[in-house]
Specification:
9 strands
């Protein structure tokens, strides 16, 4: 079988699959599942073009990683063919553990476990199936490989993951503020003292990258209507699980049934193989099939939430710098109780508060290092003359109040 395939990617053009092992991993059901998981959760309800998938993103990150390795080799850094294949596998599979609708339902499907944990578990399962040929890739992914700069290409504040998703998400949403100079940043990559660094002349491209990331968070990832849709989806899953655990007959697909009708602890998920196998068959289609059926469920809360999702009748979301007014929450809750003939607990599905955070750069968390012309290394915030970067390093916390529009009276 010919495994030297090329893929036509709308962002980068033609992408080659570098080795037969990587081709076989792409063909594996664990990876093919990513075709049915949207990269941006419910964002398509705001930006209709945002229907790209984790599959697209993983292939794009793989392509950028190949460019990065080529750049570093051209600058005299020895990277073996085995290391190249391993780091490409690590970035290819970095999101293989994502559940349905990506971040929208993280820790809702399985509480207390992140998609990175599940990615590691699936990679270990693949390693068994592929005769231990993924051992180095797993070590790089987890930061256990001696050459740390390889891990930083997979997971840091200037990794191939972030570079692809900013480019790709801005392309599919049409939000031009997210466009970054990934080609130039990659061409400026270097290694000093086993750390990835950006040469000093690339500093402005890195500044643009950080500013683009901040703008994409406010304009796309934390857009108030995106928040409304994702909060609604999370509450639909919460209510369906409550009913299922109370013994109520709730429609599910077989894969969703596994996670809805009995609580699964973190330890159980990590140590009992059948949970991982069930997770590996779960995708967006399981959730949306259930939502469409639940729209006619006899439980008022579940059926209303699902009808609202299907008809895009989302929460109204107020985003503020201070906690929402408690009296307003109490008033809206009382109106929900009266309007829907429900109890106070059930009203919490229609009126609730939460918080969101945005920080484009975290100093000390896998710093972005600038390699100065004199050979010294500086953190981007110290090397840059852009005072905005100090602001980007601060975590912005905002409060959100979600409620149904019909609860507001003129």
């Amino acid at each position: 079988m010919n495994k030297k395939k090329i893929i036509n990617d709308p962002v980068y053009g033609f992408i080659s699959i570098p080795t037969e092992l990587i081709f076989d991993l792409i063909e594996h059901p664990y990876f093919q599942r990513l075709r049915y998981i949207k990269q941006l959760g419910m964002t398509h309800l705001v930006y209709p073009g945002a229907l790209h998938t984790r599959f697209h993103h993983a292939l794009g990150a793989m392509y950028l990683m190949g460019m990065a390795i080529e750049t570093l080799r051209n600058k005299g850094h020895e990277i073996s063919n085995e290391e190249e294949e391993a780091v490409i596998i690590a970035i290819l599979l970095h999101d293989v553990g994502h559940g349905p609708f990506s971040h929208a339902l993280e820790e809702v499907i399985v509480e207390g476990i992140s998609h990175e944990d599940i990615s590691t578990m699936l990679m270990r399962r693949l390693n068994t199936q592929f005769d231990s040929r993924l051992t180095m890739a797993i070590d790089i992914f987890n930061g256990d490989y001696p050459r740390q700069f390889l891990h930083q290409l997979v997971s840091s504040q200037l990794d191939m993951d972030r570079m692809d998703y900013l480019n790709r998400d801005s392309f599919f949403t049409g939000v031009s503020e997210g466009v970054i100079s990934s080609d130039r940043i990659i061409k400026m990559l270097n290694v000093k003292d086993d750390h990835i660094a950006i040469e000093e002349k690339g500093i402005y491209s890195v500044e643009k990258f950080l500013i683009a990331r901040r703008l994409m968070y406010w304009q796309v990832y934390l857009h108030k209507t995106v928040i409304a849709a994702e909060q609604l989806l999370a509450r639909i899953l919460k209510r369906s699980r409550e009913l299922a655990l109370m013994g109520e007959p709730v429609f599910t697909t077989p894969a969703l049934n596994h996670f809805l009708k009995k609580p699964i602890s973190r330890d159980a998920f990590m140590n009992e193989d059948h949970h991982l196998e069930a997770f590996a068959t779960l995708d967006d289609t399981d959730i949306m099939a259930a939502v469409k059926v639940w729209a006619t469920d006899k439980d008022f809360v579940l059926s209303k939430l699902c009808r609202d999702m299907v008809h895009r009748d989302l929460y109204k979301v107020d985003i503020t710098n201070t906690p929402p007014n408690k009296e307003l929450i109490a008033t809206l809750t009382k109106r929900a109780i009266e309007k829907y003939s429900i109890n106070e607990y059930e009203a919490s599905y229609f009126v609730f508060e939460d918080t969101i955070r945005n920080n484009a750069y975290k100093p000390g968390d896998g710093n972005i290092r600038i390699l100065m012309k004199d050979g010294s290394m500086k953190d981007i915030t110290a090397a840059s003359d852009n005072s905005n970067l100090e602001a980007l390093a601060k975590t912005v916390k905002k409060y959100i109040l979600c409620y149904k529009k019909e609860l507001i009276r003129d």
